[in-house]
Amino acid sequence: MKLIILENYSQASEWAAKYIRNRIVQFGPGPGRFFTLGLPTGLPRDHPESYHSFMWNNFFKHIDISPENVHILDGNAPDLQAECDAFEEKIKATGGIELFVGGIGPDGHIAFNEPGSSLVSRTRVKTLAMDTILANARFFDGDLSKVPTMALTVGVGTVMDAREVLILITGAHKAFALYKAIEDGVNHMWTVSAFQQHPNTVFVCDEDATLELRVKTVKYFKGLMLVHNKLVEPLYSMKEMGAERSQSKKPYSD
Prior knowledge:
Elements: E1 2-6, H1 9-27, H2 51-58, H3 80-93, E2 99-103, E3 124-127, H4 130-136, E4 150-153, H5 156-160, E5 164-169, H6 175-182, E6 201-206, H7 215-222, H8 225-228, H9 238-248
Parallel strand pairs: 1-6, 2-5, 5-6
Antiparallel strand pairs: 3-4
Main location: cytoplasm
Organism: Dicrurus megarhynchus
Pfam families: Glucosamine_iso
């Protein structure tokens, strides 16, 4: 497990963005190798607060990606469980998840796997806790009657199958959750703690999120930053990596 501690939200976000860029370039994605782990809540696709709208406005319209290479759960499917089962099959068919990127709630939930979720759960329909509904009310003008009460979500087991997991945790209100994730034991009431047992997890946080951690824990991981910064420096490019791959495929000559 790696814990990356940066001074503030902006620095943590920049480090994570650079890391994700390098991993994408190294992975060399192409047709059939794009996957978005969507968490829809039954809202129409064109609703301004739907997951489809969020991903389009904040990510897809800024990058070079074809719509057919994006896989998002359909929260309006006639058979929601069948939709979840099909999503799991699609992940398997594409070779599994290379890199899962996510955040957590103040109660330590990952995706919509809220406290009490099974640590071996798969993609499914999940009832949302009141704390989550209250937290999301800000997107609906504070009107609780408009906030979805159920969602489709990948399971903890689904994410644990990913070859690598990157979790972003920022702000003092997430400090206790980070403590549960790093220093306390694995507990289904804090589903993010499951990643203590994942072979390749990277937690990226800011100083505020470390307020509940032991001083020696913070000092230990800060002491590794010279090594961890090599993961984002230098920044790779698709062109350079493509040339490197082509060179490696050339037959040996004397």
